[in-house]
Amino acid sequence: MNWRLELYSELGSTSDEIIKRARAGEPAGLAVLARKQTQGRGSRGRVWRAPEGNLNLSILLRPARPAAQAGLFSLISGIAVAEALEGLGAENLTLKWPNDVLCGGAKLAGILIDATQAETGLEWLAIGIGINLAAAPEIPDRRTMALAAQGLDISPETAAHAILARLESWLEAPGALICAEWLKRGHAPGTPMEIAYAGQRRTGFFAGLSEAGELLLQCENRIETINTGEVLLANG
């Protein structure tokens, strides 16, 4: 991939900038990094707060995968973030389905996927990544942390280049390999969890991932396949 990293001193939202450029026909490989983001978006309509010194990065892809495999990109992005940060000295990182990176059980990073479907697959896909490098904003009912608390001084530019390098190695990997790698840092089999989605809640035990990146939830004597929602765990 020919990555083209653009650096801005301030943007409303890096993902909104990527979406605008995607709709205008921008080729894949554009990455937008903002030192300050004033209208960042988190998952399920939340606001993503990003003090200066944290990472605000969004990436444009035009993947060949079918639309049914769009969920794999949350897993791919989580793997790439974890690998990149570990390479920069971070420790005790885990992944929470579908789009969180945790450090010591506290939220360190979030990933937001926006996509548009074409007749034969995905027209474009935007990956938004926010990482608490310098400071950890408060989130109601969630523990958060920043890598600065581990004594790490990582610039957003350094983190962005490391993530792009690791992301490229996973973009065309088979779904089974992606899921297997994610599970090395993800939920242990049998982890009790509650899934909140579409105003409903499902309670059960983690039973793995489908090859499309969906969560498999053991509910009494059946396995339910969950393709969207928020995992609620006792430790955050």
Can you summarize this structure?
This protein folds into 2 domains: 182 residues, 2-Layer Sandwich (BirA Bifunctional Protein, domain 2), CATH 3.30.930.10; 41 residues, SH3 type barrels, CATH 2.30.30. The protein has 4 helices and 12 strands; from the N terminus they run βαββαββββααβββββ.
Q: Could you please describe the fold and organization of this structure?
A:
It is a single chain. The chain is α+β, with helices and mostly antiparallel strands and 236 residues long. The chain folds into two domains: 4-185, BirA Bifunctional Protein, domain 2 (2-Layer Sandwich), CATH 3.30.930.10; 192-232, SH3 type barrels. 21% of the residues lie in helices and 32% in strands. The chain is built from four helices and twelve strands, in the order βαββαββββααβββββ. It has helices at residues 14-23, 72-87, 156-168, 175-185; strands at residues 4-8, 30-34, 55-61, 93-96, 100-103, 106-117, 122-131, 192-197, 200-209, 215-219, 222-226, 230-232. The strands form two sheets. The protein has a seven-stranded mixed β-sheet with strand order 1-2-3-7-6-5-4, with helices on both faces. A hairpin with a 2-residue loop joins strand 5 and strand 6 (106-117). Helix 2 (72-87) crosses helix 3 (156-168) and helix 2 crosses helix 4 (175-185). The N and C termini lie far apart (35 Å). The model has no long low-confidence stretch (mean pLDDT 91).
